[in-house]
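Example for tutorial group B:
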């Protein structure tokens, strides 16, 4: 067994593109409970109340929805240097840029599918304008909408899932926890973790064969009940609910999927107390036959789950 290096500390922030920036900001702030912390040119930065860093989502105006940069905080300056070394030795060179809001120098690169990643270590911590009651929490509990606590994971669409899986394991030191394996033995989706949570980065096969697209970004709520209340919040505010609330078979997460007003799929997730602590975890493989049984309690996977991604592309499976 290869030693599990924990050079990546966690997925710290994402950039989402939207053609309706004010509506997307309203979704995150008024309905999901994040707070606006910064505006700059065509971006608005929002922050989840238990995020120790300065921002959680950068919302950037673009003609089409999709995902921009995913920020990955490394465990130390040495860990960052090791990852940059590994990327360059694998011929996947990126470039150093000044860090975004609160972040130190950042190494920009892409996964093999073209999703932009930013690796960094130095960072400034969030400082609340009004101190929370408990000093072990970054900001005050919002008491608003879904009260989302933090970013949980990103699920990318990818044309070649096997290739991104090799990249995740080899260049990011991520560990495979679960996967869907097709009848021909190739992976259709892979769940990797870098923390003790059972997944942080996921790649799912893009049936259109397109590259660089987003399946969804997920945020954590404290309890299952918060997901049910979030469904009511979305219902009352005209937010499209795609599927759920229900429990996933894979990873067992209690979930709700909605489309924010810009069109990006957002998951509200609660994993309960589940963690993957084993350093020698044996990856779980799911067959198409097992997947056809539906989610944990039998809910069928909705068709749009296999077809909707951002940015949208012309319909039609890959040749
Ligand atoms: Fe998810």
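The residue assignment follows.
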């Amino acid at each position: 067994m290869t030693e599990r290096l924990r050079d990546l500390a966690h997925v710290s922030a994402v950039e989402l593109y939207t053609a309706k920036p004010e509506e997307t900001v309203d979704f995150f702030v008024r309905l999901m409970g994040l707070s606006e912390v910064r505006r700059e040119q065509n971006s608005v930065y929002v922050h989840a109340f238990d995020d120790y860093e300065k921002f959680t989502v950068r919302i950037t105006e673009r003609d089409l929805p999709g995902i921009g940069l995913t920020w990955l905080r490394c465990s130390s300056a040495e860990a960052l240097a090791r990852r940059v070394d590994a990327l360059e030795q694998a011929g996947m060179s990126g470039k150093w840029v000044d860090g975004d809001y609160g972040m130190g120098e950042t190494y920009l690169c892409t996964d093999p599918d073209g999703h932009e990643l930013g690796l960094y270590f130095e960072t400034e911590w969030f400082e609340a304008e009004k101190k929370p009651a408990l000093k072990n929490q970054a900001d005050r509990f919002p008491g608003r909408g879904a009260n989302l606590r933090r970013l949980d994971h990103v699920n990318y669409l990818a044309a070649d899932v096997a290739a991104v899986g090799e990249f995740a394991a080899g260049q990011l030191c991520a560990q495979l926890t679960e996967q869907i394996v097709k009848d021909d033995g190739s992976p259709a989706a892979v769940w990797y973790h870098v923390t003790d949570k059972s997944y942080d980065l996921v790649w799912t096969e893009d049936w259109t064969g397109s590259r660089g697209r987003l399946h969804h970004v997920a945020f954590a709520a404290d309890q299952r009940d918060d997901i049910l209340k979030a469904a009511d919040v979305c219902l009352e505010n005209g937010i499209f609910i795609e599927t759920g609330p229900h429990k996933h078979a894979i990873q067992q997460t209690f979930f709700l999927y909605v489309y924010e007003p810009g069109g990006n799929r957002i998951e509200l997730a609660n994993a309960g107390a589940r963690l993957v602590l084993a350093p020698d975890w044996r990856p779980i493989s799911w067959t198409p036959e097992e997947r056809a049984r539906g989610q944990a309690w039998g809910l069928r996977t909705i068709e749009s789950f296999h077809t909707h991604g951002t940015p949208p592309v012309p319909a039609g499976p890959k040749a």
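The longest strand covers residues 8-18. Compare this with the pattern of hydrophobic and polar residues in the output above.
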